[in-house]
Design brief:
mainly beta; eleven-stranded antiparallel sheet; 3 domains; single chain
Length: about 400
Amino acid sequence: MKNKILSLTLLFVAIFSYSAVSQDLYSYDYSDVFKEDNYLGYIGKDYKRLYIYYSSITKNSKDTYTVVGKSMTGGNICAFEGSIKIDSFKKLDKDSYEAGYEAFVLVGTYQYKETQGKFRGTFKGNVEVSFYIEDGRPHLEDSMIGADGYSNKMHEGVWINDNTKASKPANWGMFRIPDSGDLDQGVGEFYPAEKYHSKGWKSRWDMLTAQDDIVRAQAAYIESREWWNNDAPHLKISSSDGKVFIDIAKGSDGKFLQHLDFPTKTPPVLIDLNFDGYNDLAQLADDGVCYLWDKNTGKFVKEPSYDKIDSKGNLIVYPSKNYIVTINYETKDNYSRFFMYRFDVTAKKFEFMGAIQHTMEGYWREYNSKNQLVRNNLRSSSDLSKVWADYIKMTMAQ
């Protein structure tokens, strides 16, 4: 093994400190907080890869939500229906996150019965989600999302076979998995142990460690593909003469859709850059290009405005805020500059929203969407406009 990963067995323990909740949190709708496209999960004592996707979550009463979704183990995809019941809320201790707001933990139970597919059964167990309230609605508590060991939306329970009534452990979560034993060999993030790669974890390993760019890119596609969607495109990535090529086929029948050439050797990544719910193809390199998925034509369409984005090699996506940020580290002058962009759905292009600069002397400067200096010599990032102050607060926690 070329990359030696420090071993750390992660147990699902109470890592948070709690206190009583005074406000009525049941009145809010937590449907969006539960949703997640890329849960990490396993089923059985041999840690076979389990995929979970919630297609819809609807609030029915003060504490009960109807859930519709799909599960996948191996090639077996099953549709399921069921519910989440909120049992209680706990206040999250300030030492567990880095933000100015008050955060909480939702504690509940879930039960999902598989209704279509082979080897059907029922998932049941306990769930915990940390969140905060802003603008009158709940948001996922993600102030530590880039920090080592961050996890959320932790589901711990069992799967019970409909026919035999035998049960297996079945757990999933965001970034980590509760009670994952020796499956998880990572410290800062989830790394599947080599002995379980044959159980569906090889692509995860290749995405994190492969030395070959194309192997790593293909694995990243497998990890982020919309397996629950029959019509989602299937990608085959290759390279030659310093260029990258992608052949795209329709997921449901394998029919060829299109061929894309990328001008540099940097493989594109699947990432939702315009926040429409569909993955796009973008090269995270300064000379890279971007193709946005067009649901009407069922093809990827090149987006010229992406070419004008500065410092694409340091691009970070913030879905909860609907913006992207790129970072330019000027070592010569010893300062960092942050550029913010948002995709304008009306103009159908990426728009520059503004920038901030952190100087060698420790001052902050802010520029508007016309790149004009509007704030200068600020000692504290909290004196920036709210969107930038919130961004700095969030990233400093990472």
